[in-house]
Design a protein that fits this description.
The protein is mainly α. It has one domain. Helices cover 49% and strands 12% of the residues. It contains two helices and four strands. It has a two-stranded antiparallel ribbon with strand order 1-4. A two-stranded antiparallel ribbon has the order 2-3. The longest helix has 22 residues. It is elongated. The N and C termini lie close together (5 Å). The relative contact order is 0.24.
Length: 69
């Protein structure tokens, strides 16, 4: 049986935390901007750190597992 939990969590978080898609932290003109579809180097770094932290919490601390097959 394959454990698809880490794959699903990583894909969903990647889509949700893409800078500029839902929100951008820090924004170009304000601290947080929503749905502006723009990005910057600073926001990429911030979103990467948030992605790593949340992914680590879901996979290590909570231990999400989805078995298929």
């Amino acid at each position: 049986m394959s454990d698809w939990g880490p794959v699903l969590v990583a894909v969903v978080l990647f889509v949700l935390l893409t800078p500029g898609l839902l929100f951008q932290l820090p924004g170009r003109n304000r601290a947080v901007e929503f749905g502006n579809m723009h990005t910057s180097g600073q926001s990429i770094i911030v979103h990467a750190v948030i992605y790593f932290a949340v992914l680590t919490i879901f996979l290590v601390a909570i231990g999400v597992h989805v078995y298929a097959g």
